[in-house]
Amino acid sequence: MDVEVRRAVPDDADAVARVHVAAWREAYRGVLPDAYLDGLDRRERAAVWRGEISDPARTVLVAVDGARVVGFASFGPPRDADPGGGDRAELYAIYLEPGR
Question: What is the DSSP string of 46-94?
Fold first, then answer.
């Protein structure tokens, strides 16, 4: 396995959404209601991720194995009320395909 990490581009949004939904369904089954997890819509998530990837204040990185996105991380400015200066960042999300 030769995984590369690179900055996401808007064309990665569908793959990021695929990983996101699959990871949630795997990680949160038994914690969140099955109906909620089964109802997660990859197209809706992809639209959200297109916006995140295009937002200059945020960074989305993807882990790519060959041509397949197998994971991602998203970070940016802290969302708390007291960000403590410009040298801090908040990790918003980090997910891998189940089984990775």
Answer: HHHHHHHHH-TT-EEEEEEETTEEEEEEEEES--SS---STT--EEEEE
Q: Which amino acid is at 41?
A: D
Q: How many residues does the chain have?
A: 100
Q: How many CB atoms lie within 10 A of CB 20?
A: 21
For each of the domains in the chain, give its residue range(s) and CATH number, in order of start. Answer: 3-96 (3.40.630.30)
Indicate whether 85 pLDDT > 80: no
pLDDT over 90 for what percent of the chain?
81
> What is this structure's pTM?
0.90
